[in-house]
Amino acid sequence: MSRACLIDPLAGVRTAADPACDVYLTGTVFLDIIFTGLDSAPVRGTETWARGMGSSPGGVANMATALARLGLRTCLAAAFGDDKYGEYCWETLERGEGIDLSLSRTVPGWHSPVTVSMAYDGERTMISHGHDAPTSGRPPGIAGTPGPPPARSCVASLRPGQPQEWIAKAAHAGSVIFASTGWDETGAWELAELPDLAHCEGFLLNAVEAVRYTRADSPQAAARALAETVPLSVVTMGAEGACAVDGRTGEAAEVPAIVVEPLDTTGAGDVFMAGFLTGTLAGWPLADRLALAGLTAALSVQEFGGSLAAPGWGDIAAWWQRIRASGRAGARPALVSESALAATLERYAFLDEPLAGVTRPWPQRRAVPTLGFRG
Description:
Blueprint: E1 21-36, E2 52-59, H1 60-69, E3 74-81, H2 84-96, E4 105-107, E5 114-120, E6 123-129, E7 151-158, H3 165-172, E8 176-181, E9 202-206, H4 207-214, H5 219-226, E10 232-236, E11 242-246, E12 252-255, H6 268-281, H7 286-300, H8 313-329, H9 338-347
Helix pairs in contact: 1-6, 4-5, 6-7, 8-9
């Protein structure tokens, strides 16, 4: 569990027989360098100065950090670069976030992948550089072993036409698999090209991806169609919120987005996944899981720094305390109408129970602006 976490969201469901790891995930760790405060995209042949800059572990570290900050015992298997960037990422994740890196390793002579992200007009443009780590083709924590470690759940990124052996092994060992996927560069958009989906409990897509995969005419219809293939489908709809369908019970839920002015959207999808997974493992109602996921994503985009912008329970408590105080005082936050404030107070009332006794001032500061100052 993250050392800064105030709450164990799974305290009510843990047993002595549970594995030590709540969530296992694997992937590539990048060093992210984020420029913010740009009025427009850089113009060819000119120099553009940004008003803000942040550096943080990126790639799979976005998801790992978001999970750990929500109190899940997180185990990451990843290759780290044999350079100062890799050293910084390792130290930040292990010592700063309390993430278990016992299945990760530093690859001698391999430099860290780097992504530069430029945020403007509510969107981002990224430039990345890196080379595949020289491995056996299996995740660092699995190579030479029968499979992934015992874990309550796993997070997987599915790739069209590229099955990953560890996913089936983890599912057969009892781990609950939550999956997402990226843009299908082949243009086929066929669920049959994602064979590992058969082992997954939940599948999270954005609206564009979901509609393309299902040929549906709306995100809601896409969620219903996906629930015929996977037990739990979730579709994010940007400013329109998110919807989900439980294929086992037929339950459907939709929650509107929280209106904010985004500073940097890097890692917002990972933070959403972490919030939804946390609520699912805790056994919350479907709509509450969506609400927590949307809230954590909304809080994250108001900070720069990708993984380091991921909120914890203290940040959630500070937001909820502010919203409740606004309702009592009749002073609405910016961008929020009176009816929207009333709806928010009703929708997020479920937070009273997990946040009992937790108070934090608003605003919270999560990200740090540089690789770190010398002590």
